[in-house]
Amino acid sequence: MNYPQNPQMLKAFALKPMLFILATSFANHALAQEPNTAIDLPSVPVTGNPLGVGSDEMVIPVSVLNGRELSLKRESTLGDTINGIPGVSATHFGPNASRPVIRGLDAERVRIMQNGIGVLDASSLSFDHAVTIDPLIIEQIDVVRGPAALLYGGSAVGGVVNAIDHRIPTEKVEGIIGRAEARVGGADSQNNLAGVVDVGNGKIAIHGDAYTRKTSDLDIKGYAVSSRKSRADGTLRENRGKLVNSSADAEGGAIGASLTFDNGYLGTSYSGFRSNYGTVAEPTVRADMKSDRWDVASEFKALGSIVNRVKVRMAYTDYRHQELDNSIVGTTFKNRGVEGSLEAGHAKIGTLEGVLGFQFQNTNFEALGDEAFVPGVNTQSKALYLYEELPLNLFDEQKLKLSFGGRVEHTAVDSSNNAKFGAGQNNSFNPNSYALGGVYTLNPNWSLATNLSHNERAPSYFELYANGAHLATGQYEVGNTSFDKERSNGLDAQIRWKDGNHSFSIGAYYTRFSRFLGLLDSGNTRGIDGELNPIDADNNGIADGSGENILPEAQFSAFAATFKGIEMEGKFNLSENLNLKLRGDYVHATNRDNHDALPRITPLRLGAGLHYQKNSLGARIDVLHAFNQSRTAPGELATDGYTDVSALVSYKLPTKVNLELFAKANNLLNQEIREHASFLKDISPAGERSVLLGLRAEF
User: Fold this and answer.
1) CA atoms of 60 and 48, how far apart (whole Å)
2) What residue ranges in 279-398 does DSSP mark as E strands?
3) Which of 32, 126, 526, 576 could hold 476 in an S-S bridge, CB 3.0 to 4.6 Å?
4) pLDDT digit string (tens) for 154-181?
5) Topology of the domain comprising 7-698
6) In Å, how far from its chain's centre is CA 33?
7) pTM higher than 0.85, yes or no?
């Protein structure tokens, strides 16, 4: 890849070989000095509750992936890594760009964060834009399922995915700790290598990480184009066995440092992300992405009798995405901005405990080139929020913990003057959100949790100002500058049971949007130059959207909608070394104005797995069955169900350092797997049956 010869960028990426050398030398040091000094990260979520409680005490469901479990579940994208968690699917725009979908909601309704600060990329604008987080260097992923607008704003009405990488050390480090991982194989013939190291003397902690990822075009079962699509519109079924233009080449790294104290830390970090990948939807177009990010973070606890904790986080991001057609730069997307938060916790007032927070964001987005379909936009937001918890002792072992709070926000979304889009426009909104919830402990085994929330979201820049051909999704998208705030009310409830190593939970939710902002087919067509219902020269009549330069028109519209569903997961210890895991989810989403189904809603899924671990040997087999999705939106094709069977075998080598070999087999039944949540489901299936080999070390 050819990147600008920026001295700062060159300096940052020159650190990567040094980091791998350091990781190797540290591993040798650990082998000689201290056996089995593996990193042991606690399975405690840091997202969804600012008071730092365990997931069992959360009002809304939170899933945590970290440590060895995360290492074994890593995929090429953040979305595919957490796909399969109850309630979570992925947009799967080919193997290189995949955003999480939570409870049928995606884009601007799922907040993606890195260490508690939003990721300022353009992945919500277009699903062919990759998220600027590589799972290779993530240490923990928190997934909040359900409305979290109270703490994180309207873009969290569907949920939150927070990738935690510890690039700013938050705890004292004595000596050297780290990990390294290498992977080869898989359906995309990947060659991946990553290293993470932390060095400290108890007062100063320094972090370094680096990774490289290279993949080939994905091997697939059968043809890229589905038989349904071929029958529906006559698309030829070509390229059997290969997903053309799906290869990728990525690299990145970071360096950070903190001053650590008995009651807190103060630190900063720089991180760089580079990726060049095929977009799949267009066989000659590749995306060349870069993101540079600078973070500052600090937290101090046990401060006094009034304010007992203060936490500050801020990040500046410089993001660029270029689309290369036969190596020629076409459209360039840029996003530069700063986001931060200040949070203060007050001392207990009786049993009442809580925080007051302030959040801000200022971003400048630009789209340059012939295929730009959104003008330049400045978005600014400021918000105050309050979150409180009140534990109450009832009878005997019965306890109730109430949680409540509110958020007030002001958001301005202003477009710039542009020859293509006309005079700039100013729009401002005042979203307000509030929630009331509780966890009721019946006895040491059983508890009930429920949450009632009102959520408001300011329209995004593309929902307001889009007006152009969006070739990645094959539509001409039209925004609406008259939009008001999106509004919804939600109810979430779970029953939870835990007994030793056994646990089970089942929950249901209902979210009712009085105003939902969605992209709907208008029934019209547009030429890529914007002409409405042009004549198609191929058939000498009104275009049907199948012409090469003619696209169906999709308008952002406001309508009433409901999302409801059920989620289940359980873990049962069958013997000392064998666990059974169960999971399942279902989403039902409807446009209440016309009673149509909403598009790209994942069907009913049920899964089970057996996980065995004894001494150094581990083995697991997991089965996930997705049913047919025949409840589709107008113009949307149905999707066949599939059964995805994966297996893994691991072995910890008899060395002083924690060294583990593993082999992972995917799609053992060699099924044609197409994700209904994907825009590209009918031209981009998942990979065929494959085996991946890996080696991971912790020291």
Assistant:
1) 8
2) 285-301, 307-325, 328-349, 352-368, 377-393
3) 526
4) 899 999 999 999 999 999 999 999 999 9
5) Maltoporin; Chain A (2.40.170)
6) 39
7) yes
